[in-house]
Amino acid sequence: MAIGLLEVLLESAKGLANTDFLGDIDPYVIIQYKTQERTSSVAQGRGGSWTWNERFTFRVEYPGSGGQYKLILKIMDKDTFTKDDFLGEATIYVEDLLAQGMENGTAELHSRKYSVVQADGTYFGEIQVGLSMTHKVEVETDRDFGGWKESDF
Prior knowledge:
Structural class: mainly beta
Strand order of the largest sheet: 4-5-1-9-8
Helix content: under 10%
Number of helices: 1
């Protein structure tokens, strides 16, 4: 099993469902990879187009346990006085990217648009995301010498 870093560039979204009765939505994204989760800031923009330009990093193991090599991007609407609304989600399968990154040292999926799927299964809007993966070589710093352990600390 090899260790790597998966970097997600959350760029922009457009055409998302408007769940607010008064005014525009205030979208943010919860990005999940297996048990790890990152949350973006509320996007800048109005009138159906929003921008983040934020980077998030996830630690990945490949091949690893569980086998679910996918990023889930949950798009939410930030509300002040009520529970935040779910606008939809996009799923990005990254197994091929991870395999290529582990083999070549790095791999990249250039920025592209992914469809946003609402809770009822319909498509409504798109989110633009770029991905890169870097193989990380872990250096073992603890050495065991016949029951004695030497450490760099």
